Amino acid sequence: MKTPAKIFSCTQSETLSKLIANSFGHPLGNVLFSRYSDGEFQPSFEESVRGARVFLIGSTHPSSENLMEMLLMLDAAKRASARHITAVLPYFGWARQDRKDKPRVPIGAKLIAKLIEAAGATRIITMDLHADQIQGFFEKPVDHLFASTIFLPYVKSLKLDNLTIASPDMGGSKRAYAYSKFLQSDVVICYKQRTKANVISHMELIGDVEGKNVILVDDMVDTAGTLAKAADLMIERGALSVRAICTHAILSGNAYEKIEKSKLEELIVTDSIPSKKDHEKVRVLSCAPLFAEVMKSVHNNLSISSNFIT
Description:
globular; 7-stranded mixed sheet; alpha/beta
């Protein structure tokens, strides 16, 4: 008898989870969250998951409650005798702590990976990790999806002449080159120096953008300081237009204000993190069909390689 599939959502990702479940062709399972007055909470599956392949959907962006929800749901599924437990993490939070960049600091991304496995995950599906090596922090299989399968058709639909792909920093150059290879375009790179996290002291542009329509490519946008500064610099250097593609729209602090004041024509993101508000410069493309397709393939033991463009 085939193992049944069950899909459940953490509270922070309910909107996306409903879209994924709809694309998958299976209703969301019922989870009840009991909350105590001090903030402690307890998830409870209100249906049997014994012997099932369980998909638990939830991004683990701060606050840490979002991560704790996922851990408790994984543990509940394990203790309820689910046969396979897949943690579906559209956004893998704490991923910027992927190495020791100075003494006496944690490697937070590895800690989170170990917590997810210890809680009961037998497989992980995620998208556009901040650093590829995070896959190696897990001992369980990781399906690392690329949002390029979502963004590239949209970029092609814009039919931009003299297109140039840009990376907002040296670390994103590999991603930028992957996009440029598919789009057969030039590449430029921004070199930036930081005084501390989220604060840029200096930025320089490596490459020519004069007369070009530029698309910045990055895995996430947090305060939008880098994107705003890069867009303004490129317009100063003669670019015709500047757009940005960022998979995970964290958009913290006064990010929306920076986007509004910047020379950015458009910021294109996915719904991996719930949107805080609508903005005329921000276009959201859903990642639900991509996750649903991969989840179907995993459930049916089929290859997922057709879902990769870059």
